[in-house]
Design goal:
six-stranded mixed beta sheet; alpha/beta; 27% helix; 459 residues; 18 strands; 12 helices; globular
Length: 459
């Protein structure tokens, strides 16, 4: 669990100076000071959302079929009497998702002497319901054998030495108890790379299901605001779409689904491993309208006059009906998180600069009458409200418009947007998780921001 003292001073000052100081106080929740407001935010960011969101590929199966299949899987994996049970339900406003939540919430598990240390990325996955896979294990007790009960800890700072035999004294976070499925000597075998589940989580810290065994071309795990983003873009069959920073492909494949896999979606990313992941997701969901390219989106526009072909980047200005810009950001809205909150101010301030380069390219590539959706999985106003205000000032052709599904909160006040503009953007803020101002499913999400622009004629 993160505490006030665990967070870097750089991050505290950065978030306060230009984002949360603008709300002055949060009397509704009894929060009056900088420490109280930011403390609530950091505490909420350290915990996973209570709801697991499964997006259903409705091109392959109906919601009813998917719900029946998923519920059967949950009941097999977590039978009555196992200490955990889960229920899959629909969402009142989003037609293509199922929400999985715990029916019975057991008491918090008690730590045991046998400690297994995992990497921070593995620990985060465990907090969201995953089991521990062998590559994620950094250290395990000497003599650990299959069937042993162990406590699993996440190495927050990445300081644990691989194969450590004594108790790890660095900063670690308890993520739950489990049963060893592999012995220590199988995990740290020098002859072959370990694979498979190393620890089955029988008592996770938070009651979330493992859906690793639920393999289906109908289902895709996704955060709720990410699903809302694709609906905000509102693509139509036959359109030409650009996803500028597409990895890992969740929104890209959702866009294809919404437009009935008819039209073309160009999915760009400048990382080869990430492009490979997009391709795997496309294949798994049986989609044909997506064309992935290894390409830097800031260089996606061609300045050569007369370029006509639309088969690969760079593209001519005014090519696309709709563009999604879910660009690189500080990712401070991700949950749960621990190591990210140690980012330096210099690193935090670098993101808005790159985002503006992407926005400049996006506006030029968008047709007049087209739609641009800008989104981030972060919470600083510099990357959200103030970025939108900059774009509206920089590009007179852009106009904020209403989003079809609006379940998030309004944009923050005193961050460059008018009252009307604040109501057009969506902000999913970690400060709202405890407010119960919206249904819990819509409040208890990752931190996120969505803005939708229309490109109008200019004189």
């Amino acid at each position: 669990m993160e505490t006030w003292d665990d967070v870097s001073d750089d991050l505290k000052e950065y978030l306060w100076d230009r984002t949360y100081s603008t709300i002055s106080s949060d009397k509704e929740n009894g929060l009056d000071s900088k420490k109280e407001i930011l403390g609530r935010i950091f505490n909420n960011l350290s915990k996973p959302p209570k709801y697991t969101v499964v997006r259903i590929n409705t091109l392959q199966c109906s919601i009813a079929e998917a719900k029946s299949s998923l519920q059967n899987y949950l009941e097999q994996e977590y039978p009555y009497g196992s200490g955990q049970s889960f229920n899959a339900t629909g969402h009142p406003h989003i037609p293509d998702i199922l929400l999985v939540s715990a029916v019975d919430v057991s008491s918090k598990p008690k730590e045991c002497p046998n400690e297994v240390i995992v990497g921070c990325q593995c620990g985060t996955a465990v907090l969201r319901g995953a089991h521990v896979f062998a590559p994620g294990v950094i250290a395990a007790p000497i003599g650990m054998k299959r069937g042993d009960v162990v406590s699993v800890y996440s190495d927050v700072d990445g300081q644990c030495r691989k194969g450590l035999t004594k108790k790890f004294g660095g900063r670690k976070i308890f993520v739950g108890n489990g049963r060893a499925e592999l012995a220590r000597n199988e995990i740290f075998c020098v002859d072959t790379a370990p694979s498979g589940i190393a620890v089955s989580m029988t008592e996770p810290l938070y009651p979330l299901p493992s859906l690793n065994g639920y393999s289906s071309h109908c289902a895709f795990l996704q955060n709720l605001p990410s699903v809302v983003t694709s609906h905000a873009l509102a693509p139509r069959p036959g359109e030409t779409i650009l996803d500028m920073c597409a990895a890992p492909g969740g929104k890209t494949t959702h866009i294809a689904q919404i437009m009935q896999d008819k039209g073309v979606i160009f999915a760009l990313d400048k990382s080869k491993p990430k492009i490979d992941k997009i391709i795997r997701n496309i294949q798994n969901l049986n989609l044909t309208s997506i064309k992935p390219f290894l390409w830097d989106a800031t260089k996606a526009i061609c300045d050569v006059e007369g370029k006509k072909e639309l088969d690969k980047p760079p593209f001519a200005a005014g090519t696309f009906d709709r563009i999604l810009l879910d660009g690189p950001c500080s990712a401070l809205g991700q949950r749960p998180q621990h190591s990210l909150i140690r980012k330096s101010r210099q690193e935090l301030e670098s993101f808005p600069i790159y985002q503006r380069k992407l926005l400049n390219t996006a506006v030029r590539l968008l047709k007049t009458g087209g739609t641009l959706v800008y989104s981030t999985c972060t919470i600083p106003s510099e990357e959200n409200e103030r970025q939108v205000a900059w774009a509206l000032d920089k590009f007179p052709c852009l106009q904020l418009v209403k989003q079809d599904i609006h379940i998030g909160g309004f944009g923050l006040a005193n961050c460059g947007l008018s009252e009307e503009q604040r109501r057009l953007v969506q902000r999913f803020d970690p400060l709202d998780i405890d407010k119960q101002c919206r249904p819990p499913t819509d409040c208890d999400t990752i931190g996120f921001f969505i803005a939708k622009f229309y490109k109008k004629e200019t004189t």
